[in-house]
Design the sequence.
């Protein structure tokens, strides 16, 4: 009697070993696993072994690319961040600032936003200096520069008072959004962003009419 083919299962051909991922596919899987571990357990509990297991690769593959989990996290966050784009001229500073708020709220409500909030939580610990520069360069700095560009355009257009297009004013919006997220635990949504714009930022920058 013929012996059953051991490569066959009761339901059909047995599946072979999982396909080995390389290059960009492997990197994407590692980044996804790193961000998932970061947001679910925090940076302190995240391990290179755990990331490797979730990405179905070996720990050596991670250490060939990144010297530490902090280096891995920063590259994963950068890869997941949407590209920075200039706000187009929409005809009014209010419309342009509203566009920035909608974009910012969308990012903060996404998985990458959850990762950024987790990193902000690390600013209370010994890794504060390590992550502070990274967050400023990759998250806060570009947002502030975008707002400042909008304010300068509005000043030239005449719907921003002269002297208001300065970094201190541009810092108000991201500072308030981060304060609400980090210290108050409040929801950052479009309604809160609109209230912040209408009640705080626009009154600060409107031209003084004679």
Sequence:
């Amino acid at each position: 009697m013929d012996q059953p083919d051991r490569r066959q299962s009761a339901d059909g051909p047995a599946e072979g070993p999982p396909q080995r991922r390389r290059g960009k596919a492997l990197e994407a899987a590692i980044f996804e696993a790193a961000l998932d571990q970061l947001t679910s357990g925090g940076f302190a509990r995240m391990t290179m072994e755990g990331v490797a297991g979730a990405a179905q690769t070996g720990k050596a593959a991670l250490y060939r690319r990144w010297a530490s989990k902090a280096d891995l996290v920063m590259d994963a966050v950068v890869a997941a961040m949407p590209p920075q784009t200039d706000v187009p001229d929409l005809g009014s500073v209010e419309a342009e600032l509203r566009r920035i708020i909608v974009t910012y709220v969308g990012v903060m409500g996404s998985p990458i936003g959850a990762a950024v909030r987790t990193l902000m939580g690390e600013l209370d610990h010994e890794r504060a200096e390590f992550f502070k520069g990274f967050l400023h360069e990759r998250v806060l700095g570009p947002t502030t520069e975008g707002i400042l560009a909008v304010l300068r355009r509005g000043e030239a257009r005449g719907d921003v008072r002269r002297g208001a297009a300065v970094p201190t004013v541009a810092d108000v919006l991201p500072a308030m959004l981060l304060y609400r997220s980090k210290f108050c635990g409040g929801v950052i949504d479009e309604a809160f962003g609109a209230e912040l714009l209408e009640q705080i930022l626009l009154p600060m920058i409107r031209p003084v009419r004679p």
